Amino acid sequence: MHQLKYLAGYSPHITAQVAQLIAENRLGSVLVQRYPKAHEVRTDRALYAFTVDIKNEFLRTTQPLSRVAYDGKIHVLNNALGTHTFVSRVQGGKLKAKHEIRIASVFRDAPVEFLKMIVVHELAHLKEKEHNKAFYQLCAYMEPAYHQLEFDTRLFLTQVEMAGSPYLQA
């Protein structure tokens, strides 16, 4: 049986159900049934606008984002679906802070719910640097279904690794 590395922390009961879906070759169809279509946020400019809209709704007082982009160099194998970078630079006599968010390009062809979950996760790092209780409470505040979407995103990554994205047009 294929090792379910994206579901490593889940109970044997859950992983057995996922393994059954994989054995029956139904994981992709279950995902498509639950999340029928991929989003339309294809460009870096559209991703920036999508992210800033969410940020402005929930985190108005945080510093602005300098860049949001899809990044083909992020490997989900390293447990990174997206990254948030905080860079401080000296410009003249002032210290400037820049926040950049990069999203793995595998999510260019994913449901909008998965993209939003990753964006919410990276935006939460603007307030909470560590993955602690307050961090996950903030994620759940911005996206009430955060934990379910995180699990479903892990299912999506398992499907992509085994058979490709079910959202790509053949």
Question: Would you write up a description of this structure?
Answer:
With 170 residues, the chain is α+β, with helices and mostly antiparallel strands. 45% of the residues lie in helices and 16% in strands. The chain is built from six helices and three strands. It has helices at 12-23, 27-34, 44-58, 112-124, 133-142, 146-163, and strands spanning 65-71, 82-91, 94-104. Strands 1-3-2 form a three-stranded mixed sheet. A hairpin with a 2-residue loop joins β2 and β3 (94-104). The longest helix is centred in the last third of the chain and has 18 residues, at 146-163. The mean pLDDT is 89.
**What's the average pLDDT?**
89
Q: Segments where pLDDT lies below 50 for 5+ residues?
A: none
Residues in β-strands, percent: 15-25%
- The secondary-structure class comes to alpha+beta
How many beta-strand runs?
Answer: 3
Radius of gyration: 17 Å
Q: Could you tell me how far the N terminus lies from the C terminus, measured between alpha carbons in angstroms? A: 27 Å
The level of helicity is 40-55%
Number of helices: 6
State the major sheet. Answer: 3 strands, mixed
Shape: elongated
Strand order of the largest sheet: 1-3-2
Order of helices and strands: HHHEEEHHH
